[in-house]
Amino acid sequence: KVRQKMGMVFQSFNLFGHLTVIENIMLSPMDLLGKSKQEAYDEGMRLLRTVGLAEKALNYPDELSGGQKQRIAIARTLAMDPDVILLDEPTSALDPTMVGEVQAVIRDLAKTGKTMMIVTHEMNFARAISNRIFYMDEGGIYEEGTPEQIFEHPQRENTRRFIKKLKVLELNIESRDYDFLGMAGQIEVYCNKNQIPPKTASRIQLTFEETAQILVSLLESPRIQAVCEYSEATETAEWTISYSGERLNVINNGDELALAVLKGITEEMKYNWNENAELPNQLSLKIQQA
């Protein structure tokens, strides 16, 4: 009985290929709800009109486009009059040209007050249609909130990186004899993998090299964590470099030549001190756009 109150729209449609469109919609109401053939037919046609496909009632699924199949799948789910509808990546199996028509049907459903739980990677769609967002990561609900909270003010790091489409590289230096060439190679692979423009990639590399050189020369036992974040959305890059020791603002105390190089390739350099952090010194360097 509980399952009958829940409807499911599958990623891959799951329509019966040997049945026509209207037969697909009529089947469950007749078998599970005990509706007569006429009742199921009338309701099925009404739902087909709702999703804009009444003229396809006698077609078979193989004769439909992906977007049409998904709209039929939604109509079939609605035929059971569920209290809650679960939609599993409803647009992921579709060509980009067909995504809009399915999203339009789901938006219309939302306006009726029907409760829906939608699994999706379409961020603009999720933001426009939802009143509650759950970001899933690390095997569970990582962060939740209103669309405004999640998209404008995410509180947790993985959420922020996902929403802003950030590509992340993390490097760690534990001694003065760190593997300079190995880290340079990791940066090159990272830039190539994420198709970062060559000029920006060169600045990412040079920013790390100069900052690492300053810190290693100043810190007796360096512990340095360097995190580069590249945003696909804005094509911007930023290094956040945290390091051990007493309060040390390298912007004011570093090698003058290295700092001059950094100032020439960064838009902004900021220093912060957090005495409660494991690595209390933090330097943020925003790379100039190419």
Automatic annotation (TrEMBL):
GO terms for molecular function: ATP binding; ATP hydrolysis activity. It is found in: Cell membrane. SUPFAM superfamilies: P-loop containing nucleoside triphosphate hydrolases (SSF52540). Residues 2-163 form the ABC transporter domain. This is ABC-type polar amino acid transport system, ATPase component. Belongs to the ABC transporter superfamily. It is a peripheral membrane protein. Pfam families: ABC_tran (PF00005).
